[in-house]
Automatic annotation (TrEMBL):
Keyword terms, alphabetized: ATP-binding, Nucleotide-binding, Transport
Molecular function GO terms recorded: ATP binding; ATP hydrolysis activity
Name under which the protein is recorded: ABC-2 type transport system ATP-binding protein
InterPro entries reported for this sequence: AAA+_ATPase, ABC_transporter-like_ATP-bd, ABC_transporter-like_CS, ABC_transporter_ATP-binding, DrrA1/2-like_C, P-loop_NTPase
């Protein structure tokens, strides 16, 4: 099997008596987009900081590009920190070139890469604009370009979508896809499951500093079991206890997920709906979203928007 680009083995980080990251192990393979998912305070940033050697693990090992000393491979890694920071008075192209030079790219090369990147990502006309005069989304794109200008093999992006409007979020998704197509490995953290669902090859889900799942979406769905979606204006409670139905979860409005036991017969369940007087306006197999899977694995209550929908 190919060497992982990045791995943690039993990494733990404590702050005083508080354990922010608890015995975390995972491995990222070359060329994949790897999503790091967790709610606020789950330990995502702390883990990314351990990877970047900004905070050392209290115990356990971090291995980046084959080295247990991340400082040795810094020039091969690009890191977008949670706290954004560009010099407001610097021009866009200068800013990108500056960060590339910090990572060892010669001056002339850094300049030409900065211009080429701005051009490629639709900011060519803003190359001489000061950061303070750019919109927030544009400044964030410039920051991301600053992180990739030294052509790192591995990109670590902490909440790269936060603060971007939907158009810029889509642009960033495209950009991440493009970087992967160019052979980079990308790890990004998010609490917005939709980005991860669209982009990632594999995911790590953490809750309270602990791993609750690592794998592909298909693997998460397989672990979760099969489900049917029932659309009904009625309360589906009478279906509880029907053979084959493990549980019933509201999806919002008139939609309910029926989680099935192994070998459940969907036709028998449809018949049971009619027998119990539950109106069936829609009934069929449906893939579980990453959003729902996350809440199931993380053991948390649904996000407020889901609760609102369900109410
Ligand atoms: N320097 C620190 N000192 C004390 N506690 C800390 C420190 N850094 C992080 N923590 C705590 O560790 C936990 C994990 O924080 P972390 O920032 O890693 O979470 P996160 O998953 O990135 O959350 P968010 O999505 O809100 O950024 C939190 O409870 C946080 O308060």
């Amino acid at each position: 099997m190919t060497e992982p680009v990045l791995s943690l083995e039993h990494a733990t980080r404590r702050y005083g008596g508080f354990t922010a990251v608890d015995d975390l192990s995972f491995a990222v393979r070359p060329g994949e987009i790897y999503g790091f998912l967790g709610q606020n305070g789950a330990g995502k940033t702390t883990t990314l900081r351990m990877i970047m050697d900004i905070v050392p693990p209290t115990s356990g090992t971090v291995r980046v590009l084959g080295s247990t000393s991340p400082r040795n491979v810094r020039r091969r890694v690009g890191y977008l920190p949670e706290e954004r920071g560009l010099y407001r008075k610097m021009k866009a192209a200068d800013s990108i070139a500056y960060f590339a030079r910090l990572k060892g790219v010669p001056r002339a090369e850094a300049r030409s890469r900065a211009d080429a990147l701005l051009e490629r990502f639709g900011l060519g006309e803003f190359r001489k604009t000061k950061i303070e005069a750019l919109s927030k989304g544009m400044a964030q794109k410039v920051q991301l370009l600053s992180v990739i200008a030294h052509e790192p093999e591995l990109l670590i992006l902490d909440e790269p979508f936060s603060g971007l409007d939907p158009v810029n979020q889509q642009l960033l998704e495209d950009m991440i896809g493009e970087l992967r197509a160019g052979g980079r490995t990308i790890v990004f953290s998010t609490h917005v499951m939709e980005h991860a669902e669209r982009l990632c090859d594999r995911f790590l889900m953490i809750a309270h500093g602990k791993k609750v799942f690592e794998g592909t979406l298909a693997e998460a769905r397989a672990l979760d079991g099969e489900r049917l979606v029932l659309v009904t204006p009625d309360d589906p409670a009478p279906l509880r206890g029907v053979p084959g139905i493990a549980s019933i979860a509201p999806l919002g409005g008139e939609r309910f997920a029926l989680l099935l036991n192994e070998g459940a017969d969907s036709q028998a369940i449809l018949a049971a709906c009619l027998q119990h007087g539950v109106t069936v306006n829609g009934f069929g197999a449906d893939a579980t979203s990453l959003h729902e899977l996350f809440f199931r694995f993380a053991g948390a209550s649904p996000a407020p928007d889901v609760q609102r929908e369900a109410a």
